[in-house]
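Q: what sequence does this backbone want?
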């Protein structure tokens, strides 16, 4: 039992514990040790009312939820929260802080081998939680309850400060996530890069739920982050999304689908999933705002990608343009040099292209260039790089390719184009419906004494030699 001369020492030590910036678990462990030493208690726990979840949670035990089966603590909170804050519980009975003789006698009558004492935690006159203390044997004097009363008030202030700091941190993290999502577009525009970043940001903000991001393509939702999702309930929610949907929740409130919508178009959806934790209104409000910001970012990425597409691709043929080619050839030359891997290129030209334009018109010439570019795309590998170099000239980079392989590709390309019939229907030409064209190709293999410019020049010289020798042929650079 605490002695009067120990009051100051007890309160001083309690104050020192509460002003230290440690975790809730560490703080409560220290408080328990102090209570055991001075107040002869067995254990103390601190329970907070969560307005979002509408239930009690353990402040020091990873926010453990006190369900309906925890009748004692729920009953105590229900009654104490409606009182004026001047009452406490002792073994399920009400008592005032200022114990009179009758109450002291009643406490002695209610004393058990295992005793429970519950004091309210309050701030600005409002009760926000409970301090529950377990005792085995104790004198339960007026001074004992007075110390618990003072302790509950000091601890209330410390917990409120912690909760406010935590709320502020959540708010700062939320606005940081919003800002970071908005800033992604400053450096990246490819959805394959952007969406994982958005997913990771939302996932960090919603640690109790798994986050999935879907893109809406061809009238169905395709999972793009993470790599797999096998829950049928998620897809059922997605199928109920429309342009006017703010969000859809599963019946148990553990799954939420939040559409990504921009300009009245569905871009996709963000799904928050858990088989344990429910989504509460505060979580929903945060996710609505995060998905709206994500929608704007994804829409801007789509627009930027479209703009960049036309900035890097040739408008007529759809191949890389000259500007993009100059970037890619430097990259491939650097890769070849660094990794000591073979690299070849082809420069090709449509033979007598000026005659085609002069005879059949520029629309017919455009049709020829488009047809040639289609053949090039069909005949090269996915990772080969083709571009329209200028006019009727094309350039193809062939990574991981030796000279013999490159010549084989060039000969196959030359032969396919030679056998191709270009349909001039719709070009305004009334002379013929089909024409045939041929191409000349110069092939070059990269060597260590070259840079990007000399690599191109060698292929250009080989192309010139092919034209000089009669066209419709493949010549390799010396």
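A:
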């Amino acid at each position: 039992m605490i002695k009067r001369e120990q009051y100051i020492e007890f309160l001083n030590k309690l104050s020192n514990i509460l002003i230290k910036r440690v975790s809730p678990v560490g703080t409560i462990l220290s408080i328990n040790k102090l209570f055991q030493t001075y107040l002869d208690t067995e254990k103390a726990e601190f329970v907070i009312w969560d307005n979002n979840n509408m239930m009690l949670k353990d402040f020091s035990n990873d926010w453990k939820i006190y369900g309906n089966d925890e009748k004692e603590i729920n009953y105590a909170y229900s009654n104490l929260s409606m009182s004026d804050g001047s009452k406490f519980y002792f073994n399920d009975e009400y008592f005032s802080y200022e114990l009179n003789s009758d109450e002291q006698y009643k406490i002695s009558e209610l004393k058990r081998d295992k005793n429970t004492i519950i004091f309210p935690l309050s701030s600005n006159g409002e009760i926000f939680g409970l301090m529950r203390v377990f005792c085995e044997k104790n004198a339960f004097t007026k001074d004992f309850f007075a110390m618990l009363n003072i302790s509950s008030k000091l601890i209330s202030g410390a917990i409120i400060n912690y909760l406010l700091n935590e709320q502020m941190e959540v708010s700062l993290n939320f606005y940081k996530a919003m800002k970071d999502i908005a800033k992604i577009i400053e450096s990246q525009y490819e959805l394959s890069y952007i969406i994982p970043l958005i997913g990771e940001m939302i996932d960090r903000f919603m640690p109790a739920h798994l986050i999935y991001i879907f893109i809406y393509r061809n009238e169905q939702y395709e999972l793009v982050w993470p790599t797999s999702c096998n829950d049928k309930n998620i897809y059922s929610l997605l199928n109920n999304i429309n342009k006017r949907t703010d969000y859809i929740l599963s019946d148990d409130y553990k799954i939420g689908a939040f559409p990504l919508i921009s300009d009245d178009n569905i871009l996709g959806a963000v799904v928050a999933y858990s088989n344990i934790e429910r989504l509460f209104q505060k979580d929903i409000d945060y996710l609505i705002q995060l998905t709206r910001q994500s929608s704007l970012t994804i829409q801007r990425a789509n627009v930027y990608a479209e703009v960049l597409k036309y900035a890097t691709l040739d408008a007529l043929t759809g191949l890389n343009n000259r500007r993009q080619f100059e970037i890619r050839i430097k990259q491939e030359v650097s890769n070849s040099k660094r990794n000591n891997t073979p690299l070849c290129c082809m420069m090709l030209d449509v033979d007598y292209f000026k005659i085609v334009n002069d005879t059949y018109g520029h629309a017919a010439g455009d049709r020829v260039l488009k047809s040639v570019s289609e053949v090039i795309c069909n005949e090269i590998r996915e990772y080969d790089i083709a571009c329209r170099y200028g006019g009727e000239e094309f350039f193809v980079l062939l990574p991981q390719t030796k000279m013999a392989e490159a010549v084989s590709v060039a000969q196959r390309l030359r032969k396919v184009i030679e056998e191709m019939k270009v349909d001039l229907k719709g070009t305004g030409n009334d002379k013929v419906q089909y024409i045939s064209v041929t191409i000349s190709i110069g092939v070059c293999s990269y060597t260590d004494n070259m840079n990007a410019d000399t690599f191109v020049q060698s292929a250009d010289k080989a192309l010139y030699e092919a034209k000089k020798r009669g066209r419709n042929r493949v010549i390799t650079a010396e």
